[in-house]
Amino acid sequence: MLGLMRPSVFVWFGLAACAGALACVRDDACDGGHRLFGGRCLDLGAAVASRWGFAPEAVEVADLDGDGVADLVAASPDAGAITVVWGGKDMSSGTATTWSVAAAIDGLALVDLDGDGRLDVVTAAPDDDAVAVLRNRGARELAPARLHPTLVPGPTAPRAVDLDGRGPAEIVTLHRDAHSLGVLLDLKPFVALEVGLGPVALADGDFDGDGRRDLAVALAEEAAVQLVVGDGAGGLSLGPRHPVGVAPFAVVAGDFNGDGAQDLATADALADAVSVLYGDGAGRLRARASWPTDPDPRALAAVADGTGGHVLYVLSHQTSTMQRLDLRRGVDQVGATRERAAALAAGDLDGDGRAELVYASRSGRELGRVVPDAPGFSLAPRWETGPARRAFPLDLDDDGHDEIAVVPAAEADAVVDLDRTANLQLWRAGVDEVVDIDLAPLPRVDAVVVGELDERPGRELVAWSYGQLVIAGETADEWVAGELIEVPGLTGVIVVDRDGDGRQELLLKQFFGSGSRLDHVELTADGSLSELASRPFTGLLGPVATVDRGDGGPQDLLVIAGNQLRFDDGGDEPRTITLDGVGSVVEFALHDFDADGRLDAILCTSVGMLRVDDLFGEPPGEPTRIDRSGCSQIDLHDFDGDERLDILAEQSDSSGGATRNLLSLWLQTETGGWNRLASQSLPGSSGRTRVVRLDDDSWLDLLVDEIDQPARVYDMSFGTAIADEPVFTGDLGYRFADLDGDGALDLLGVGRGLAVAHGDGQGGFSPVQQRALGDLLPGAERIWSAAVEDLDHDGDAEMIVVAQRADGWRSDLRLLEPGRAARPDEPPLLELPRVFTQIALADFDGDRGLDLLAWAGLPDPQYAVLRGDGHGGFADPSWSPIALESTAPSVRTIDLDRDGRLDLLANQSDGLVLHPGLGDGRFAEPRPWHSLSGGGFVGAGDLDRDGRPELAMLVAGGLVAVHGSPGGAVTRPDVLFAKAGAGAVVDLDGDGQLEILAGTGDALHIGRRELDGRTTFVRHDLELKGLSGIVTADFDGDGLLDLGLRSGAGVAIVRQRP
Amino acid sequence: MTRRLSLVLAALGLACDPLPPVRHEGVHVRVAPDPGLELCGGTLAHMDDFVARVSAEFGVDPPIGDDRFTYYWLDPEDFGKRTPCPDAVAGCAVYDGVYSKVAPLDHELVHSVSFAYGVGPQIFVEGLARAYEGLEAWRSPQPERPRDVWKFVSANWIAPLDYDVAGAFTSYLIARFGLDVFLTMYAGLGLVAREGAIDRAFKNHFEVDLARTIDDFTADGGDCLHEHADPKLSECGAPEIAWDGEYAAEFRLLACEQEDAIGPYYGGDVVVMRSLVVPVEGTYDIAVITDEPALAPSLALSLFPCSQCGTDLAVTVGAGERITARLAAGRYSLRLHGSARREARIGWALTRRPDDGDR
Predict the structure, then answer these.
(1) Which one of A78, A197, A219, A270 makes the best mutation probe of the B interface by having the most chain B beta carbons within 10 Å?
(2) Are A557 and A573 in contact (CB under 8 A)?
């Protein structure tokens, strides 16, 4: 038939096909956007980016609002935002405003550019090859950022310097890739000058004594400071170059030796030193001196010392310790910030005319004050062992002094020797000779413990590696290891005396693929191990300790298994000690702190360091938080000699691309409270710090055992140190809601504060205003969960929140109106039975009014539906048990069975579980829905058009469609888009067909499932980097669904146009 | 395999899909990458340097002019169809032609040099290449491996060969009998020589039979890891860092485009090679830093001793880490590791510690 068709018909069909194709690929009405199937346009090209992330790397102190009180101004480079924390009388107002600036920013300068008496904010926008200026309009308002191009690309580190002496100051920028310095005069490119490799930091002053402003540039890649001489008219020329240590990352000017001349100091990161270039008083730099510092110094601040001179504060990037360096006296104080600090700045915070110091922490999303002369402790390195893999303190000879057993790092480690056997070295304080112990036939050794395991005098040494151990005894002149004992899955050995007979036994920790086991064994006369008891556990075994409850019976065991506390009193099964609001537990220490005869515990948990009194009571005492920061190790010891045990808490920290161990010491007070001393920090990562007794001197000894490193011994002494005091955190969780009833979605951030930005109806948002939670909800410390709705139909949204109290360990249901502070005596809506309770608003009983669902997980999972009265009121709850896992169960409300009643879908470890709604506020017994576990829900819909909904989930493999069924399904999910890190499934244009959206970091893929089951995606590259989530909502209030593309920095709103 | 047969096979392979034109002309190597594949700035110079060093070691003239090796760096897609290589391999060499999915792949350049001695049995063809290929982008010694030489003595190009066994055994033979004697023995073996022929060649050239040699290898040399046995010709011959034996430090940009940056290897790595002479045995602090924390996991410094199969340790320090290590006196290969995809700045410092203090 085809052969009979005339050629003109072919041509016509061809043209039609071409026109159709062109319509798909070329559409002037949707340029840069995505044409939806129904004809509407997703206007990707006009996406509006708003940034509010808070991860500061630069901070300045200045009175921006002219109220006479200093404010803190912080720049968050990756977030592209500037935040001003408005000062109050004690800098703890928690009131802040964040302005969106550019995709990336760098540095900060505060200067009155327009002579209106108000400081304007300047930052560099390196990706835009420009400097961004936010004009200060007064009344705590900054104008939107305006970009001013620089002469050379990639500006960084802006500094305001009045080079021509005429005012206002010029903006000087550094350009790392161009090895240059640039000047903007009246915000217009004026001059650029090549200064050398790696210009990273800038200081200004009159360095040549001619009365004109000069510049000093730290050249990180040339180990030098380049002086740039000003001619007083804005012109610059290269001056002398001064060598300093390798990798100078910071340079500051000041009079550091008090001779009245201006000096320069650099932080030389790879020399672990500060270089000081002394001025001679006649405008020349006359000499260089070098001062050792903590490792990797990166930031400096010069603070006036009150006598006309300056002291230096040096920030170590490796350990985040601050050292106060008075060049006339040396380093006189040290202290570590608990969140890793990225920048220091000096300014008069409290208005007393003297400068104080502040720090910015990018990883901690925190600003804080530096407090010198605080109570603290110091660590002085004393000695170290030879090359070591691991080290363990042991009192082998029972003389009250620890020896250090070292697993040596042998030269033979360079080769593979299957016949090698292990040995151990014993190091003693004050003794040069090292005792070698041959542990053959043990092939290698992971750890050693010591105990009195047999009837013979003298202690035994137990050495083990994975799956095998040996027990060594001391003969007349040496230690002799016994036969190799195979213990499958052996991962740890603990010495105990559970029966209290003075002869100790061993607990053997074993891990198998299916779980763990703890065997209680004793050494027999023939050198073998005899099993006394064995106990299986779920999950990996962590710390284990014996518990003597004073009942005269065998000691019980407290174990961490699968990050849960398990108590084994010899009964049928170990009991799980689940604590309300406490997630995982990684470490514990037991002691009867309140001397009531019952054991209390200090716990390292996912919600901080907690104290729990009467841990073994049923129920145990309510937790009290000692420290919001977590810990990885704790050591109880009476550090201050007041006969009360104190806490040395250790926390490994690998934030910011460097590793350290943070040590915090909490002294127990007479009333049972805790006083934290200034913290200290040591380089390292996976080690352990222990208090040891090596000799009889008055110093406390600390042993730092770092894997594959020599063991180091430090003397610990008490005195004054530098403390950190957080004053602001910007770590909030954000969502969108129409707070003001104008139809456009607003931004709401909740957590330890409350932040709001109003949507402008065009996809943009106002600056984000953050307030301290305590100002709005007196007595509240943190919001765990929130539901937003205009409950009373007055046009403004109300928030119902689960707020944890600042005092105690309880949460309340409270009403929060963003614009109104609650009265201190305002009672909560409801006292909640569980700290971590989650809530959702929906119609659960079919009366078309909003009800409030509240649910909580372990311990004692339960839920309640508080029926709404339609006017913002809710009936009292009736709590019912519900089968949910974990303390923070992942639950979603959805009508998955399409019966018109909302169900609960729980994402559990064994898969997705459906709790069918009964339509009266109750839920039926749970039924498995699908075996998939661990995915993130991104949408639901009938993707395959079989009449039943599928769930769209994000899993490691990408975006998948999960076909479940009420009885449980094990079908393989369909991959909708591999390697997606963000996703959504929604009918964007209301044509009844689902759009599938997949994000892959810097691209958005929009697909549509065809009738034949195929899905074709169109890729759109995004300016936004790090796309991490896709929100679909009507952001602009025009009745059409838009896209919110989330990243760590903020959101880009993509509007749907008719 | 004869040169003629190889060339025919190569021609058959090439007939299916054209190979890319030469884009980089070196002294000893010409590189023909597929469109979109870019060498790092120092890779061609490294290839030239490597070929010159291996040629000198093997006592042959490095190829120049029209005899230069041609290195085809090809997209993995359809690699097997466009080259004489099996699809599953990373590369292969057919005399002066190298076909590779990655660049550089010095292993194949050793093949091209060793063709001057003919083509021996697989265990020694691959063993020789493995023994001299250097460190590539490896940052730390690889874990222990089986050393069962007998299993592979008669490897026949079909069954899988353990390159580590072949390399370790070959390194052992060269260390024990000398490279000249080994190459003479190798040149006398044919492509399909098996156990009997190898045994005879051993007796003839080494004056010890194969069985005894393998026993000796197992007893004396089988535990030496490849990274320690390899002479690391380019790595240890790299420009030497001038220092006083007490402190050396450097902070620099590490970018694929730089003239001393070699890459991108397999996974987008970039390596800068230096050598360092430690004048006296001692304890040293080694610190590595970067000012770009997000890239820290891709940045590292490695120190491999140039002494072959000695007892000195290799040391690898990631950015953000600082360690203390005992270094024996002698020459080390010092390499800086980074990502070929994203430039970053890396700094390192090596500081000798004072002798142990009192305890």
Answers:
(1) A270
(2) no
